[in-house]
Model the fold of this input.
Amino acid sequence: MNRETIIDQLSQDIVSYVMAGSFEEYQIAREIKPEDLNERFEDYRLLLNLHFVLKSDVVEFVRKLPKRLRSISTETKTVSRTRRGAVDGHINWGATMKKRYSQNPSDNSLFVCDNRSEDYDTPENLVLKRLISIIYETIDQAEEYIKHEYAWAQDTWRGEEELIDELKQIVERNVHVRRIRSPENYEPTERMLIAAESSRQPIYQEAADLLRTHAALVAGEKGEIKDLLNNTAITPDDDETLFELYVLFRFVSVLESVRSQQARFKPVRAGRKEVATFTGDPELVLYYDQAATDRNLSFVTEEEISERALSRSEKVQEVAYDISCQYFDRDFQNYTNRPDVIVLEIRNSDSHTYEYLITEVKNSTNTGTIRTGIKEALEYLAFLRVDDEFAFGGDDGEENYFGSGWNGLLVVQDLDKKTASLEEQSDSEIKILQASELEDGLKKVLDRADLNVE
Done:
């Protein structure tokens, strides 16, 4: 499955779950932000704003701003003020006589004076002020990253340190910008945007166009979200996280279909990896990113287990070798690494029993990498603990370290070689699915009697 297809589906998932308010914005921001950025940018709106100001059109707009600001439009406004015993401006005799008659007809010291002044608070200028504010506030928070020319900023603000400083001076000191009032939270309105678009001055036309682009991004329009994920400014350092998120949302989608129920997403808290739950019996709990510590799940390896022919670690190596040879029909060398996984917990209230589906994800077609994924999935199964007790295989000498054979899953990229089908893997300790097989294959895995989620 190519990157474009993954991003297209993931964009739709973000629209469906994140922008609809179901999936926590913090969670998605944490996954897709550049690794170099600090925790401030786990604020989803700030991350979107950063993506926005990294657009080349925004940089070009800022570059032209100093010259254009010299000729921004204003309106002449007449302000009437009541004066007593003095004249300040042009006397409006009609208003003066009405004011005297309504207050004191014999008071000849009262005058209504008109003063003409420039009004900067035009609809077009409010559009401009809002755009400048978004750019300024975002760059102010990201300046240290942009100025140091991180890889994800190289195509936009590279070498523009002076331009960034100039923008700050414009906002802080430019008399024209300072005279424009700060827009209200609901501004600019549609009417203001239309006025800016209808202006003859490019500064207003471009400001309105960029604000509409920003609004589409914040509103979660699929095209803008797709651009966010596609753009190397926001995409993670490698594509592994995008693929993991793709698999995670496929899990949610399949579980919603199987249960005919929408997932209940959980707020992300420190030390909590629970992503979503499905109520009912059995209750389903979905975790992402290593062990689910908030439900007393843990991953603890032990090299020595007494009264067994093989330790768990040794058994992992042995079974990983056998499965790899069966799937690829070749021999391998052994090596180990700790996995990050998706965990589905199935809680049966009547029997007070738990079942687990552990899924390791490898965004690769490399045979060696996939073989590593097999071993990691087995390792997670073998050492998964619930309340400090092994989830699979007890202390009675039983070597069922990996569950029923349907408790472990590895998802890999699509391969161009013939591999064992899900049915042909029925006797394997874990099952392997390629990306294009995931939805149908996951339904089949969940249909097994010992993983009955319906």
